[in-house]
Amino acid sequence: MAPSQSTRLLSTIALSALLASPALAHTWLEEMQVIGPNGTYIGDLGYSRGYMARTDPGFNGYSTKWQLPSPDTDIGRIRINESMFACHPAQRTANYTEEYPQLNVAPGSYVAMKYLENGHVTQPWIPAGKPDQSGTVWVFGTYDPSPDEKLTDVLAWTSDRTGGKGKGWLMAAQAYDDGRCHQLNQAPISINRQISFPNRIPGQPTSQIEQWCETDLYIPDDARVGSTLTTYWVWSWDTGMRTEGAFCGKDEYYTTCSDFQVIDGGDSLSKISAMPMIHTLGQQDPQTQAVRDYKSRTALTATPTVITNQSCTYGPSDVTTSSWPASLTVMTTMPLSLPSPAAPGPMPTYQAGAPQDGGRSGGNGSQHGGNGARPGHGNAFPTSVPASSAATNSPPAPSSHAPASPTTQADIVSFVTITIYTDSKTAAQSSASSTATISAAMAVVSDGGVISEMDQKKRRRHGRDLFGQ
Ligand SMILES: *[C@@H]1O[C@H](CO)[C@@H](O)[C@H](O)[C@H]1NC(C)=O
Ligand SMILES: *[C@@H]1O[C@H](CO)[C@@H](O)[C@H](O)[C@H]1NC(C)=O
Ligand SMILES: *[C@@H]1O[C@H](CO)[C@@H](O)[C@H](O)[C@H]1NC(C)=O
Ligand SMILES: *[C@@H]1O[C@H](CO)[C@@H](O)[C@H](O)[C@H]1NC(C)=O
Ligand SMILES: *[C@@H]1O[C@H](CO)[C@@H](O)[C@H](O)[C@H]1NC(C)=O
Fold first, then answer.
1. Residue whose CA is closest, atom 14 of ligand 5?
2. Among 57, 141, 274, 389, which lies 20 to 30 A Cα-Cα from 85?
3. If pLDDT is split at 50, 70 and 90, which confidence band does 289 have?
4. Helix, strand, or coil (residue 201)
5. If DSSP codes are grouped into helix, strand and coil, which group holds residue 348?
6. Does residue 386 sit within a domain?
7. Which pTM value belongs to this model?
């Protein structure tokens, strides 16, 4: 019997992994703020409809999450359909409180719509089959919102305002990964960005705070002053076809619905700048600067493709990665080159509403953000962690701080040990049954071998080179 066909122990992996709790492994907009002429956030914060902060009494994983198809009520559906509401039940009307008000915007201004990446950016290989750049965010706008708005109707709106009977229009299409954001975890992408884009509490030079992501929305020059502009933020994080365990692929949309008051911003947005930043969150991102390329963000998929047909002709035999189990042997030979984690520092304290400069060292508009450190698309993987800190504008890396990862968000951190026994012959014949094993392996091995397999796989699936070569 050839060795490759024998049943063998592929690997035993005992490695601490930081995994967000499932309840938090989703995304919605946390807050929004206007970006001033020099790229700093200005004015007060604004919120979505029906917003609840993670620290609010009564908050749970369903308070603000709106996922379609719903894993709870659309059992078995892999595609959205015409019945599905665009907005969370608490967000179907302009449901606002004094605590979490609407954002004031001005024609011709940019808005940073901020969210937590929850590992979708820093551990993009979890789970398998997810899109490059962690998927696409589209933002749609309308002056004529309806409480019954359906997602498929909204997705039909176009940037030239003709689609979907012109009821609204497509305002932005951007990668979910803004090139800067990172949860604090031990994955190389995170460690790299903790060094390249340290997010520090003012006056606490050793603090490390999760860096939130943003969508950078342009408010058109012809936006109607005095009106309410309703926006639907729609993130598509679909699973591609021919993925193990999801042969037909699977839609996975998340939305957040918000209203903006369109006002006259004054010269250089002076009226917005003058609004004090008082509606901060208890766990507020100290960042003060938008990503460097906030005016030129792009997406791999500029317009959504809506498929409502549930039918699918793919099966296990169509999965293009049936060689996976064999390739997993790579894991056994890859050194685990992660820096050994330093003892976590003291929990940073942070006062909501405190003056914020994000720890930036002065500057005349020079920003740490944007494309600088984006480690390539296709979930490409830094080969060696601190050395590949790619940002040309990186500040000197405070190596003693970087790997320390004080967890300030309400993430639940688990330490897992996974042992994988795989019969490569059986697994090759039944990819479906090995899916869970493969995903689990990917979840804990944040190292070169598996990731490059992932990239090979994506390269095949998308039929193009993801490394920009
Ligand atoms: C408004 O939002 C709150 C959450 O902040 C939610 O509990 C409530 O049900 C919403 N009300 C309506 C009418 O949607
Ligand atoms: C959409 O799917 C749901 C089940 O999740 C079903 O109840 C509804 O009838 C479907 N709508 C259409 C238009 O097919
Ligand atoms: C749905 O997809 C199946 C398989 O691809 C196809 O045969 C069928 O005609 C489609 N149905 C509709 C209504 O488009
Ligand atoms: C402003 O930025 C430019 C280019 O980034 C730099 O050369 C210059 O030294 C900066 N000036 C100040 C005062 O920081
Ligand atoms: C950028 O603009 C803001 C608001 O107008 C101002 O407070 C800040 O000092 C400016 N920053 C720089 C570096 O010019």
1. 364
2. 57
3. very high
4. strand
5. coil
6. no
7. 0.69
